[in-house]
Every structure is written in structure tokens, then in C-alpha cells.
Amino acid sequence: MKADKNVFPYSLRNTNGLATVYTGLTARDYIAIQAMTGLSANSKLNDRAFEDIADIAYKQADAMIERSEK
Asked: Higher model confidence: residue 58 or residue 18?
């Protein structure tokens, strides 16, 4: 899995039939969101700043992406 691969892309058409394409999240962002959800549920981390938890989540995402590329 590439870190810059987009997940959940979509497009919307306006009334003129023209489409606007939205690329969605990167795989890295999506994995970090999932990791941060789990980390936020851990009461042992309640005293940590949100920025610290986000850093941990991105480190987990990076590790998962690196592992998946092996």
C-alpha cells in the first residue's frame, strides 16, 4: 500500500453535468484516523495532548504502510 494512494475518491456533478473529482483521503491519513480512534479510547492516554496522540497515530500508520510494502 502506498502512503499517497487515495482511498474513497468520489466525484460530484453540477447542474451543467460537469464533474468535480475529489481525491478523498490518503491511505496514510485513513490509517492514522483509525489508529487515533483506538488510541483515544485508551483511558491511559487521557493525560496526553491531542498532538501527541496524533503523532503516535501517524507513526503507527507509517509502520503499517512500510510493513505492507515488504
From this structure: 58
